[in-house]
Specification:
The protein is mainly beta and 141 residues long. It has 2 helices and 8 strands; from the N terminus they run H-E-E-E-E-E-E-H-E-E. The chain has a 5-stranded mixed barrel with strand order 4-5-6-8-7. The structure holds zinc ion (ZN). Zinc ion binds next to loops.
């Protein structure tokens, strides 16, 4: 990957669909930012470098979604979770069914890893495919 200082949402998803990698930004003071913003989420520095993140973290919060949308064609209900990545930033994604259905213990605090899955989305511009962030159990840690 070419060393870059900016990361657009399109590039973030393009890399995800091509390689499955979760990209983020790192400032000169070592703070990580994800999903991509124009400046560091902590110190607001604009001196940033695009880096690959581990894609691993811990569920810090979640909510259950009951209403299906045509832009987001998932079977309901599903759980939308906020995961604090090992590098620090928090990202939003969908909890995998294996966490939805078999988990008998609390979800908050569970270690997960990011897995991009492509969903078909329908909008006024027609059908598009875009990778979405899912969280699956991290059994390696
Ligand atoms: Zn910073």
């Amino acid at each position: 990957m070419v060393e870059k200082e900016r990361l657009t949402a399109e590039e973030f998803y393009e890399e995800a669909s091509r390689t499955g990698k979760l990209l983020g930004l790192k400032c000169e003071r070592g703070h990580y930012t994800a999903p991509p913003l124009r400046s560091c989420r902590i110190c607001r520095s604009r001196t940033l470098k695009v880096v690959e993140l581990s894609g691993r973290g811990v569920v810090s919060s979640f909510t259950e979604v009951f209403v299906k949308s045509k832009e987001f064609p998932l079977e309901t209900p599903y759980k939308l979770a906020l995961v604090k990545l090992d590098e620090g930033p928090s990202i939003l994604g969908i909890l995998d069914d294996s966490l939805n259905k078999t988990l008998t213990e609390p979800i908050i605090g569970v270690r997960v890893r990011v897995e991009f899955r492509t969903l078909r989305e329908y909008s006024k511009n027609g059908e598009t495919k875009r990778p979405r962030i899912f969280f699956t159990p991290d059994r390696t840690s």
